[in-house]
Amino acid sequence: MKNSHYLLLFAGLLGILLTGTPPAARAATGPKALRLVYSHKVCYEPFIIAKANGYFAEEGLKVEVKLVNGGILAAESLLTGSADVAAMGDAPFLIAASRSNTVRLLSSYGGGSKMHRVIARRNITGIQQLEGARVGIQMGSSTYGAFLAWCQQVGLEPGKIHFVSLSPLDMPQAMQTGQLDAMAGSEPWPSNVEATAGAQVHELTDFSALHNSFPLLVAASANALEQRRDDLDALLRALAKAVRFMEQQPDQAVKILAAAIGLPEPQQRRCTYQLAWGVGFTQQDHNSLLMTARDLKSLGKIDRIPAISAYLQTAAAQP
Length: 319
Description:
This protein is α/β, with parallel strands linked by helices and 319 residues long. The protein has two domains: 31-110 and 213-317, D-Maltodextrin-Binding Protein, domain 2; 116-210, 3-Layer(aba) Sandwich (D-Maltodextrin-Binding Protein, domain 2). It is 46% helix and 18% strand. It is built from 14 helices and eleven strands. The chain has helices at residues 2-19, 23-29, 45-52, 55-58, 71-80, 90-99, 142-154, 171-176, 189-197, 222-227, 229-248, 250-261, 265-273, 283-298, and strands at residues 34-38, 63-67, 85-88, 103-111, 116-121, 134-137, 162-165, 182-186, 201-206, 216-221, 276-280. The strands form two sheets. Strands 2-1-3-10-4-11 form a six-stranded mixed sheet, sandwiched between helices. A five-stranded mixed sheet has the order 7-6-8-5-9, sandwiched between helices. Helix 11 (229-248) crosses helix 12 (250-261) and helix 12 (250-261) packs across helix 13 (265-273). The protein is globular, with a radius of gyration of 22 Å. The model is unreliable at 1-28 and 313-319 (pLDDT under 50).
């Protein structure tokens, strides 16, 4: 009996010497959490549903979620090494991937040509009036990239527009008080401005004329892609479950999303289902992403066009 006790004690000490951590402590901590970054916005709804419905856990995935106010901040998390995987729009991904080979594209999970809207004060009735106007925007965002490309198409000079770098949370009050003449963003930011400023504002345009699907993307660090491929597969399977739930249970999905994002349910339903959702990477996604990359490069916003190929695609998301 005493010999058995000494053997167990020796095994425990050996474990500490070899790993630096007592065996019981290692068992208690379990698998390392995947550090996941996204926003509580319409563009990130499959992530919100997956977390709310426990789909990450169903796939055996432990996640540590960090919420940010936009895709450009999610992209920065990958660049700084504070995230393993992050969700973002096209321009933030392209900007980050053009700066570092450590940012890798996994898949798209949605998109839509009407994703971005421009809300203007009532005295602005035509797009030409945007030249000389103060336009609130989140610099480096997918909306910013879309706005610049749209300006090229419709003949506006971006240099004549007074872009105001502003947190989307501050845009409703800035529009209401006349500090801005217009704002551009993806939901819920335009709807928040409309709700706050009311009759003072109207929708001036969206960017559907670009015929770009503005794919929403999941990107990961090169390190996570090398060391945690099974976890990344599980993440995409969880997102695919969330998309199916959104398709099959729209009423329940709207309730969950409205509570998380803060939109009234009727408005939430409109915003959610004006976008197309699906985990994978289609030829349309590729073409749209390449279109945005070329626009950003021609405007001097990126120095090079990064490789546009998704490492994990539809197969990883199959049930």
